């Protein structure tokens, strides 16, 4: 084998390892995010309902329905990523949900509402809501990027049905 060909193969192998590592971080990182968010909401329906009502978008009845659904839905999404079930569709749904979260946070910020985002714990304390909103939106954009990476290049090792 010529030295040039050997270097090209070595470079390709390093690139593949790097891209696989990024894909692994994206998939399992987002699995952890969704599982943590879902588990934090299950069993505390009242606090989740109050957080949803604070956004001043939904009626109390719809807020209660969403509070019952959102925790289990996030948990299921995280488990799909963790076990490698339908990685691309699960990531597409995740992006849709994250966009809706960003819209909700953005409208609350624009309207000057001081509320608890309720993302990972139903009783997160707010100190500076302006900074918190910006940080939550940036964080969700990073989550969208990780989910998009999983769509583009899913980490299929250890996947049941990628």
From TrEMBL:
<feature type="transmembrane region" description="Helical">
    <location>
        <begin position="16"/>
        <end position="37"/>
    </location>
</feature>
<protein>
    <submittedName>
        <fullName>DoxX protein</fullName>
    </submittedName>
</protein>
<dbReference type="Pfam" id="PF07291">
    <property type="entry name" value="MauE"/>
</dbReference>
<feature type="transmembrane region" description="Helical">
    <location>
        <begin position="130"/>
        <end position="152"/>
    </location>
</feature>
<feature type="transmembrane region" description="Helical">
    <location>
        <begin position="93"/>
        <end position="110"/>
    </location>
</feature>
<dbReference type="GO" id="GO:0016020">
    <property type="term" value="C:membrane"/>
</dbReference>
<feature type="transmembrane region" description="Helical">
    <location>
        <begin position="65"/>
        <end position="86"/>
    </location>
</feature>
<dbReference type="GO" id="GO:0030416">
    <property type="term" value="P:methylamine metabolic process"/>
</dbReference>
<keyword id="KW-0812">Transmembrane</keyword>
<keyword id="KW-1133">Transmembrane helix</keyword>
<keyword id="KW-0472">Membrane</keyword>
<feature type="domain" description="Methylamine utilisation protein MauE">
    <location>
        <begin position="21"/>
        <end position="152"/>
    </location>
</feature>
<dbReference type="InterPro" id="IPR009908">
    <property type="entry name" value="Methylamine_util_MauE"/>
</dbReference>
């Amino acid at each position: 084998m010529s030295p040039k060909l050997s270097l090209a193969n070595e470079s390709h192998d390093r690139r593949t390892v790097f891209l696989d590592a990024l894909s692994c971080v994206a998939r399992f990182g987002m699995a952890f995010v969704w599982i943590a968010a879902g588990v934090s909401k299950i069993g505390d329906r009242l606090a989740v309902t109050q957080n949803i009502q604070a956004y001043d978008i939904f009626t109390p009845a719809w807020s209660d329905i969403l509070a019952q659904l959102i925790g289990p839905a996030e948990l299921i999404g995280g488990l799909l990523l963790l076990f490698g079930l339908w990685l691309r569709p699960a990531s597409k749904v995740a992006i849709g949900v994250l966009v809706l979260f960003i819209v909700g946070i953005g409208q609350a910020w624009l309207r000057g509402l001081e509320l608890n985002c309720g993302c990972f714990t139903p009783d997160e304390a707010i100190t500076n809501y302006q900074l918190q909103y910006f940080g939550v939106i940036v964080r969700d954009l990073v989550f969208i990027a990780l989910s998009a990476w999983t769509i583009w290049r899913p980490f299929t090792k250890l996947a049941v049905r990628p």
